[in-house]
Amino acid sequence: PFRPYRVGPFLFIHAFVLHETAPRALSLATMLSAMPRAAAFALLVGLAAAIDVTVTFPTRPGYPSGTILLSQLTAAAELTITTNLAGLEAAGNSWHVHVTPTVDAGGADAECGSGVTGGHFDPAFVTGRVTPVPGTQTTYEVGDFAGKHGKLGLAPGAAPTTDTQVYVDQTASLFPGSVDKPSILGRSIVIHKASG
User: Fold this and answer.
1) 186: exposed, middle or buried (Cβ count in 10 Å: 0-12, 13-18, 19+)
2) Radius of gyration, CA atoms only, the chain
3) pLDDT in tens, 88-146
4) How far apart are CA 121 and CA 171, in angstroms?
5) Nearest to residue 17, comparing CAs of 82, 123, 105?
6) Secondary structure of residue 18 in the 3-state scheme
7) Sequence-ordered alpha helix ranges (H) in 29-123
């Protein structure tokens, strides 16, 4: 359910959670970081090279499947999100980074609900303080991927229920310790049902 990857000699483990609202929910994995202290220090001082994370959503009837690739060259660079997903709903699916991860193996049903994943990742507290402005990512929560990039599966000209797009995020990071762009590591990404 989660995929390890390497940056130089360091091993990282990251993945995401898929969530449907009641009565059923399915998590495919959790976004955790198993990072030695030396690796964390190297990332904090900007010595690490690019980070690429591929997340695989297995094929299961009634749920999205495919991959999401997250790529970032440096802590100062933009985060590139490349989706290759199928099985989305025709009305489109919202997607957000939530504050906390699910259990190590992912989660299903109550294991990936809001009682586990918390609310949207909003370290700048923009919700209720700033009115979102379409096209201005800094006016959205760091974790509001749907607000910044649109719902999954609704790209013009795309096949219905699929999402094969490249999104560029200016406010989220894969690098821990980034001052200007908070890291989404150690959190969950939730794909919501179109109805909730």
Assistant:
1) middle
2) 16
3) 999 998 988 889 876 554 544 455 667 778 889 999 899 888 899 999 999 999 999 99
4) 11
5) 105
6) coil
7) 37-44, 114-117
